[in-house]
Amino acid sequence: MTLIDLANPTRFLSLTARLLPWLAAATTALLLIGLYQSAVAPDDYQQGATVKIMFVHVPNAWLSMLVWGVMSLAALGTLVWRHPLADVAAKAAAPIGAAFTFLALVTGSLWGRPMWGTYWEWDARLTSVLILFLMYLGLIALWRAVEDPSRAARAAAILTLVGAINLPIIKFSVDWWNTLHQPASVMRLGGPSLDRAFLIPLLVMAVAFSLLFVTLHLAAMRNEILRRRVRSLQMMQASQRSV
Amino acid sequence: MVAVRAGHTKQARTAVLDMTALAALIGRDIKIALRVGGGALIGVLFFLTVVVLMPFAVGPDLALLTRLGPAILWLGALLASLLTLDRLFMADHEDGSLYLIVMGRTPLELSCAAKALAHWLAAGLPLIIATPVLGLLLNLDATSTSAVALTLLAGTPALTFTGMIGAALAVTLHRGGLLLAVLVLPLSIPVLIFGVAASQAAISGPLSFGTPFSILCALSLASFVIGPFAAAASLRHGLD
Q1: pLDDT, position B137
Q2: How far is A151 from chain B (nearest CA, A)?
Q3: Prediction pTM value
Q4: Which of A37, A40, A46, A39 is nearest to A188 (CA)?
Q5: What is the distance between the alpha carbons of residues B159 and B149, in angstroms, rounded to a whole number?
Q6: Chain B residues touching A79 at Cβ < 8 A
Q7: Domain chopping of chain A, boundaries
Q8: Is the Cβ pair A177, B193 closer than 8 Å?
Q9: Which of A151, A165, A132 is nearest to B170 (CA)?
């Protein structure tokens, strides 16, 4: 089974139909374990119970970037290999990525209120994630602006790749901009400085969220394939009626 | 030996032909932009209007305007260059000459770069020439005004060349206007950050002018590479 075998949408549909229940079950199980572990994790000596927001916030933030990476690969698939399912994958991933980014912003904001005393701070990290969110929305707007899916796919693929080049530049420039104007006020729980009691639930949650993305993505791709079939059936019906 | 030399002269002749074609393209675009219906100078008028609107919004406090001046000028230039981006491929698409450019023997990437250069000369350069006058309205002194003009000179090419990607996408999709703005504005954030940072550094900042200014130049240079390739790819894949 290679990537080329999946080019046949019917084969892809039958494979994912078999795969999806298992994926959904694994996601649910891992999410339950992760949530339980996060609930029983000890309170932080400084932050108290609010540290538990981290177990939801960090996986969301991680996935917000991972999804753009997946879309870039799909964009290469559209432009270079002309894989028939690549644009379906790219289109299905965009709203999911936007949702993860939005959740990262919201949970971060809720975490920021008790910790920093403000819902929003024009901090480098927050700002660059906000710009990522805007770029997701722009990409979705581009998908929705054009009726013909294959034409929209190539335009969206180019924009995704340009965005993939630009996102590090934006991140870097925003970091720089922040140091100019205000001192860093962010308390950071960097990876190695994190205690094992927090690290293990966080990793479980990260894997659970990644599985959640794969599940949602495959389901969204199935929906997109079916939606396109419905669309072409409707077009055929309309053209027959007009003849 | 003779064959090799013939090959060389043929290559050289093609290169010369390419150069004349590109020069002709630049000349034509500038001529069209400056003539009646071209719309290049409307950008300057828009720039003036945006800057004049600012004191109405923040109040006629001269000290405050001096402090905000570089940011206002940069924002005005950004919006003005965004406004004129629509024209970059749209008119050529309407009269069909875009298809000639795409199918021509000159590499499409070079043609795109030439078109962007012509667009910048016709629509971007006037903005920089207008900056000293507008700096007067915002109570900026000579040093500040020249700093802003210099950063605009280094930064607006990046706006044009990255904006060209959006313009190429918009023309292949037969959509323009707001979609173009939504796609292009997030990409122009780094240019805005370093442009304003360099101007502020020259006016008041403790930081040296050189660092943000060199990054601004680097952004422009990077956009010279990325912009034409992405725009050409978009035109190749998108035009039917």
Answers
A1: 87
A2: 6
A3: 0.84
A4: A46
A5: 15
A6: 233, 237
A7: 22-235
A8: yes
A9: A151
